[in-house]
Design a protein that fits this description.
Layout (H helix, E strand, L loop, with lengths): L5 H23 L1 H9 L16 E5 L7 E7 L2 E12 L10 E7 L16 H16 L8 E3 L3 E13 L4 H15 L5 E3 L5 E3 L27 E8 L2 E4 L3 H6 L2 E7 L5 E5 L9 H31 L1
Parallel strand pairs: 4-6
Antiparallel strand pairs: 1-2, 2-3, 3-6, 5-6, 7-8, 9-10, 9-11, 11-12
Helix pairs in contact: 1-2, 3-4
Length: 308
Amino acid sequence: METTTVAEAGGEAKGMAAQMEVEAYRRLFPLPFYERHLAESLRPDGRPLGAARDTTVSLGPVSSADGSALVKIGETTMLAAIKLEVMSPSAESPDEGSIAVEFYMPPICSPLVRPGRPAELAPIISKQLSDVIMSSGMINLKELCLISGKSSWIAYLDVYCLNADGSLFDAALLSSIAAFTHLQIPLVSVNDEGKVFTIPTSQDRNPNLESVNNDKRKLSIQNTPFPLSFALHKSYILADPTAEEESVMETSVSIVLDGMGNLLSVFKPGGAGLGSSLIIKECVGLTKRRMEELKSILEESVSAMEVD
């Protein structure tokens, strides 16, 4: 039977008291608390300033969706789901489909999101996602065409934030990319009236139905965009900030590169000025390193899906 001496008990009590004092100081004086860590080039969670958090990608968590993915960056968690529907293409682009993007922040994701009130950040991230996906050329909209001038696919991409702990745009974009990677386009046929309809699963399939898109079941993902967000404070640059870091630091910026390392976009939501072009250059350099990490993570998720 183990016994605890008075000295050991006293040491544990002092340790707990010291920890409580640190936490109290962190809550009351968050900026001085962080500046002490930044001076040592180390963050409270133990990461170097330029390091991102552990990231995981799981494909196919939503069986009812045509494509889906669950992404975690640290504690930030995103669920992306894609549903395809047949539509009539526009007269301006008769041989193209379209993509509709929505980003949701339900109250469960953060105590800052109140029930009954839409999160102010949600429409901003929705537009960011839509702009990057469309401007990057990641999806060739012509691959969503079924019959030129008559029918095409519209891909409804819905991204749900399940836990908001910083770098929401990064996790949202990564989950969107992964969901499109997982996307399986349904088989469709054309009836006597020329109307396009989806063919049921193989068990219920009518053998007399002929598919018009046997060779168009997967999208070819090209020029994939890779993001990395930063919190900036004085001369310090913190990659992949947590929600606490975002709230304490002076300003933030998000960098998006394509798979070749070319700059696609820079997003800065107000706050203090960047001060120097060297800051952007350093952020781009860190994003290039992160891009290689994300490529490997996405490849591993696809390999794991193929094994399953």
